[in-house]
Specification:
Keywords: Vitamin C
Structural class: alpha+beta
Order of helices and strands: EEEEEEEEHH
Protein name: Fe2OG dioxygenase domain-containing protein
GO molecular function, one term: L-ascorbic acid binding
Number of domains: 1
Shape: elongated
Distance between the termini: 35 Å
Strand content: 25-35%
Largest sheet: 3 strands, antiparallel
Length: 99
């Protein structure tokens, strides 16, 4: 969860580039995975933790954000034993279609 608390600022856009599992985290970005988001004070965006993302530089003013990470040790442990393609990984789904 990323909540924008800043008042007046320019720049600082968030960018998202597709969800990947650990095996595919460095794979090429597909055009349909490109999403840019301009934060608005008082609003928030919630995204999957494996969604490749980042923030551009703030060019003017102060951008203040509250970022909350929610992690599940049970989920991470279960992933070790998963034999099938993760349904949330864009690259795994592309590989599955090719098979």
């Amino acid at each position: 969860l990323n909540v924008c608390l800043g008042k007046q600022f320019s720049g600082g856009e968030l960018f998202f580039r597709g969800v990947r599992c650990e095996k595919h985290v460095c794979t090429e970005i597909q055009p349909q995975e490109i999403f840019d988001y301009s934060h608005v004070p008082g609003q928030a965006i919630l995204h999957h933790g494996r969604h490749r993302h980042g923030a551009r530089a703030t060019t003017d003013g102060n951008r203040i954000n509250l970022v909350l990470w929610c992690r599940s040790s049970v989920f991470r442990e279960l992933k070790k034993y998963q034999k099938d393609f993760p349904s949330w990984c864009g690259e795994c789904q592309r590989e599955k279609k090719v098979r």
